[in-house]
Here is the input.
Amino acid sequence: RTPLHLRLAEVKQVVSLATAVLREAKQKVSVVIWTDGVPDKRKAFEKALRELMRYPVSVTVRLCTSDEEVIEYYSELDSEVSAPLEVLDDLRSEAIEVSHCNPWLTYAPPLHMVRELGVVHPLIDALDERKLRVGEMKEFIELLLGSPAPLPEPLE
Here is the structure.
């Protein structure tokens, strides 16, 4: 039994109290859901998720299962709900997805942990969705290394 809709309603209530402050500071709350099952009330969960996403939040769903029904449900939800929703599988599965799009990148545990903790950045989100352009690769490496000064422009 996974009553996720009830938990999301609680989170929404807390976030709603801080919305003005968050928006003024241009900040978001990172909501990370670790789950091994589909919500017991799917429609209620989807409604609660959409309501929560009206607030300054980003949502990461970290799947803790290899059950195909669960993976399929959240993958479909990810494609239906626009950002800021990120659905993550285990390290190996995510590494395979990233390598299909960006074979130059070794997807290692620290990067996976950053994503699991709900860190949101457009380039991190894109790693498993599409091939990064050369300029984006440079920007990603600067982000990853915390480069204090911009790296030289790459040759195309």
Notes: The chain has a mean pLDDT of 92. Residues 91-156 form one domain. The radius of gyration is 17 Å.
